[in-house]
Amino acid sequence: MRAHLTPPSRRQALRRGLAALLALPFAAALVAMLGGVRRSQQPVAFPIPGDVPVGLSVVEGAIVHRSPAGAVRAFLGRCTHLGCRIDRIVGDEAVCPCHGSRYRSDGSVAAGPATRALTPLALESDPKSGGWVARVR
After folding, report:
1. Using CA atoms, how far apart are residues 58 and 60, in angstroms rounded to an integer?
2. 49, 51, 121, 126 - which has most CB atoms within 10 Å?
3. Looking at the 3D structure of the chain, how many domains does it have?
4. Which of these, 71, 41, 43, 39, lies nearest to 59 by C-alpha position?
5. 74 shares its domain with 62
6. Angstrom distance (rounded) from CA 62 to CA 76
7. Would you state the pLDDT for residue 89?
8. Strand (E) or helix (H) holding 84
């Protein structure tokens, strides 16, 4: 047996439309505010010392990988799931303490809930320290 659905009255339709129109600016403002908070929490530059060990390391808010050949790569130390700060290395993976996302040495996702790779950082040589300065690209 089919249930008979009556269409909304004109007054109900106008109320729903007005509520949707009023909600849009608030939703847009919330998204903009959260994006601003996230950007303000990201440092501009990360000092990376020259004596970073081979393998993965957490250094000054960055995830750094040094290959056995000496090549160094750096990634922003924020989980791409919800932005938690990655604070540990387990085995050969960087692990987010909030929800357990894991990242490989190339920044790719090894286990979720994250679905996007870590944000790569640009490295510049720092003659003063003998290391590097990593910057968000």
Report:
1. 7
2. 121
3. 2
4. 43
5. yes
6. 5
7. 93
8. none
